[in-house]
Amino acid sequence: MTRQPLFDPADFRIPEAVTYVCVGAKPPFLRRNEAAMTQYFADKSPGMPGRTKLEAQVAAARAGSARREDAPDTADRSQITRLGEIARGRGGMTAEEFFLYRVVGRAGAVPVAVMPRPR
């Protein structure tokens, strides 16, 4: 019985006569990423005009991720309190920002997580 691959090998840059075994390590480069990198280099090369285009793409990607701005679902909670925000970054540059919430479950609901972890 021949098993089919999970992903189409044609979607990746795999050199001729090379068999790639996916074992959770770094996979070969995706062809669609190659097109994105080529566009990135083309946008970056002209200096500031390219930077403006790159920043617009980042803003569009963030706007497309509406879920990032949504408050937690209140279905099984009796109380949700927004505590603040934290940021992850390095060298004075923010990479990600997170909203922190204190969430109290409804009486009788099954706990999803118990923190701090019981010993």
Can you put this structure into words, describing what you see?
This protein is of the alpha+beta class. The protein has two domains: about 5-70, no CATH class; about 70-119, no CATH class. It is built from two helices and two strands, in the order H-H-E-E. Helix 1 (about 30-45) packs across helix 2. The N and C termini lie far apart (about 50 Å). The mean pLDDT is about 80.
Labels describing this entry:
2 domains; two-stranded antiparallel sheet; alpha+beta; 119 residues; 2 helices; single chain
* Helix vs. strand class: alpha+beta
> First CA to last CA: what distance?
48 Å
Overall outline: flat
- Biggest sheet descriptor: 2 strands, antiparallel
Contiguous low-pLDDT stretches (5 residues minimum) are: none
How many beta-strand segments?
2
Give a quick rundown of the structure.
This protein has helices spanning 31-44, 48-64, and strands at residues 77-90, 93-105.
Q: What's the helix and strand layout?
A:
Blueprint: H1 31-44, H2 48-64, E1 77-90, E2 93-105
Antiparallel strand pairs: 1-2
Helix pairs in contact: 1-2
